Amino acid sequence: MKFQKICVIGLGYIGLPTASTFAAHGVNVLGVDTSQHIIDTLNKGKIHIHEPGLHDELKKAIQSGNFKAATKPEEADAFIIAVPTPFQENKFGEYNGVTYKLADMRAVISATESIVPFLRKGNLVVLESTSPPLTTVDLVGPILARSGLEAGRDFHLAYSPERVLPGQIMRELIENARVIGGVTPESAQMGHDLYATFVKGQIIKTDATTAEMVKLMENTYRDVNIAIANEFSRLADKFGVDVWEAISIANLHPRVKILTPGPGVGGHCISVDPWFLVESAPELTQLIYHSRMVNDAQPHFVVNTVKRALGSLDGKRIAALGLAYKPDVDDLRESPANEVVHLLQSEGALVKAWEPFKPDANLVGITMSPTLEDAIKDADALLLLVGHTEFRRFNPMQIAGKTKARILVDTVNGWDVEAWKNAGFDIHVLGVGKVRNT
Q1: What is the pLDDT at residue 167?
Q2: Which of 209, 298, 365, 393 has its CA 20 to 30 A from that of 338?
Q3: Distance (Å, rounded) from C-alpha 164 to C-alpha 202?
Q4: pTM for this structure?
Q5: Neighbours of 179 (CB within 10 A)
Q6: Which of the following is catalytic: 215, 316, 326, 352?
Q7: Rounded-to-integer distance, Cα 65 and Cα 275, Å
Q8: Where are the beta strands (DSSP E) in 307-434?
C-alpha cells in the first residue's frame, strides 16, 4: 500500500524524529500533541528537545510542505501512537508482600480514543509506546473497536517499538533493525510496508505481543546487567578493589560483557520497562524485581561515597555536574542524578546543579546554576554524576582556578585520577576501594 498521509500522535523524543523522518521521505505527515506550546514551536520551525540532526530534518520537512503540527488528529492512511508511558503516581501493585510500580496508560488511552472518529476501513494503526504485554490486543484494539470497525478485519493494527539511542536517533531510526508485531499477519505486513518507507535495517514481522515483549526484554536485560555491575561496585568498595579495573579484566573473557556501574539507572526505558513485566507477572519476575531494587538504591551508595569524602554533609556546598540520565543528552526523565541531589540535600548539603544540555530545567527542589562557573566557584566539592563529553574534557588546572573545592567525587569513572591529583585535587571514584596505581 502507498501511504499518502500519516498522523503521528505524540511529538516527544520518539514521535517528533519519526514524524520528521517520514516527512523527509515524501510522506504527508500531521504531527499531533496536546501541548499548544509544542505545536506553536514546531510550526515556527523550531524544536523543543535536543537531538542532533533533528532541527535540520524538521526544517526541511516544513519547507517541503510535508509536515505540520496540530492538537487534534485528522483522517489519514496510518496513525502512529508515540506517547509516554510513565509510572502511576502514588499507586502501586502488590504481590506476596512485594510492592511494584504500575504503568500509567492514560496517554495511550487518550491518544487511541482521539483516533476513533477518524478511523476508516483499510487504515493502519501502530502503537510505538513501550507498553506491558497484551496492551495492543487488550487495550488499544477494544478502544478502536468503538468506531464500529474490527482490528484485523476492517483495519490493521500493529505494535512497533522504537529501538534507538538518544543522541543518535536520526541515524538509528533508519539503520537499526525494526520489529513489527501485527494482530494478524496482514497487519504485520502493512506495518512492514509503512516503515519500509525509510528503514534500511532488517524489518522483522511477528505478532503484537511478541513485539511488545521483545522491547521489554531488551531493556530488562540491560537493567539486570547494570544491576550486577552496581553490586560489583559496592563489593569492590568493601573488599578494597577497583571495580573499573576488575570489570575491564573480566570482560576479556570471550563470553563475558559486564556493563559499567554508576549512580543508578534512568531514562524512560531501562528504568521503567522492567516494571511492566513485573506488573504483568509478579509471580514470575523475582530477578527482574530485585535488579530494579539494586539500581534504584544506587543513589544511596553515591551519597555514602560523598560522605566518606567530606564527612558530615551538613552545610557543605556541593556542585552536582550533570542531571541527564545519560551522557550528551538533555533527557532528565527518571534520572538517578536528581535522586542523588535530593538525598544530599536531606543530609543538609547545599547543592547547586549544572546541566549544560538543559540549564533552564525546572526541577522541584533542585537549584539550577546558569553557568558552570556559578555552580563550582564556592563549592566544597565537585560531584560528577553524568559523563558528558564536556565534563570529561575538563582541564584540571583550569577548573582549579575557578573553584575553591579540592575534593572530587567521580561516579562514572570520567576523570583521569593522576591529572586531577597533579592539579591539587583529592579524587574519590565510585567503586574504588583502594588507591589507584596510576
Answers
A1: 82
A2: 393
A3: 14
A4: 0.90
A5: 23
A6: 215
A7: 41
A8: 317-321, 350-354, 367-368, 381-384, 407-410, 426-429
At 141-180, the pLDDT tens digits run 999 999 999 999 999 999 999 888 888 899 999 999 999 9
Tell me the CATH number of domain 5-201, given options 3.30.420.270, 3.90.25.10, 3.20.20.70, 3.40.50.720. Answer: 3.40.50.720
The pLDDT value recorded for residue 435 is 66
Distance CA(42)–CA(47), nearest Å, equals: 6
Choose, from 7, 101, 269, 326, the residue flagged as catalytic.
269
**Looking at the chain, which residues constitute the CATH 3.40.50.720 domain(s)?**
5-201, 253-429
With beta carbons less than 8 A apart as the criterion, state whether 22 and 173 touch. Answer: no
DSSP 284: G
Ranges of the chain with pLDDT below 50: none
7 assigned to active site: no
pLDDT of residue 190: 98
* Cβ-contact 210, 221 below 8 angstroms: no
pLDDT for 49: 86
pLDDT digits (tens, 9 = 90+) for 235-278: 999 999 999 999 999 999 999 999 999 999 998 889 999 999 99
**The pLDDT value given to residue 258:** 97
CA 37 to chain centre: 22
**CATH class in words for 253-429:** alpha beta
Could you tell me the CA-to-CA distances from 427 to 70, 312, 415 in Å, in that order? 51, 17, 9
| Contact yes or no for 195/180 (Cβ under 8 A) | yes
Residue 406, classified by CB atoms within 10 Å of its CB into exposed (0-12), middle (13-18) or buried (19+), is middle
